[in-house]
């Protein structure tokens, strides 16, 4: 059995936090929650937290906003993917620090889960080429072309 991916979910609205936690846990993720940026940073710095595969946070929070949280989180845990959510679509420009952005009321739970799945998979890194495939295989050719383009 594969270990469950860990998502740190941060939102100052307790009800929203509980709904997201339930949604993600029913899909097999392990969810850590924090109601403010300081609490989230403490969890990221704590060695007992272990690996965090995704930071999912609200943009508008008291004291420290989502952008600042993402900046500080990347100092503590470099390479952790981030997904920011905001209640207003016009805030997209302000959410520029995150790897991905979703508007709170305008995205469905399915869209959120798909974005989470993609970001968690991206943390694993690129897929390796199939060694047993012949050199003319389209999979190997495509992987080789993608590596040269990077």
TrEMBL record:
Keyword hit for Phosphoprotein: yes
Annotated ranges, domain Response regulatory: 6-119
Alphabetical UniProt keywords: Phosphoprotein, Two-component regulatory system
Keyword Phosphoprotein: yes
Database matches in InterPro entries: Bact_response_regulator, CheY-like_superfamily, Sig_transdc_resp-reg_receiver
Coiled coil (residue ranges): none
PROSITE patterns reported for this sequence: RESPONSE_REGULATORY (PS50110)
Modified residues (4-aspartylphosphate): 58
Name used for this protein in its record: Response regulator
């Amino acid at each position: 059995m594969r270990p469950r991916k860990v998502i740190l979910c941060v939102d100052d609205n307790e009800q929203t936090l509980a709904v997201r936690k339930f949604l993600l846990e029913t899909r097999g993720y392990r969810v850590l929650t924090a109601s403010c940026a300081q609490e989230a940073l403490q969890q990221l710095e704590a060695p007992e937290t272990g690996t965090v595969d995704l930071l999912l946070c609200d943009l508008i929070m008291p004291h420290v906003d989502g952008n600042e949280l993402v900046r500080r989180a990347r100092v503590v845990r470099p390479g952790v993917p981030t997904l920011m959510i905001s209640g207003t679509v016009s805030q997209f420009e302000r959410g520029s620090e995150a790897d991905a952005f979703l508007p709170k009321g305008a995205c469905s739970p399915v869209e959120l889960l798909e974005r989470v799945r993609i970001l968690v998979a991206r943390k694993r890194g690129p897929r390796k080429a199939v060694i047993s495939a012949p050199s003319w295989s389209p999979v190997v050719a495509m992987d080789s072309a993608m590596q040269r383009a990077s």
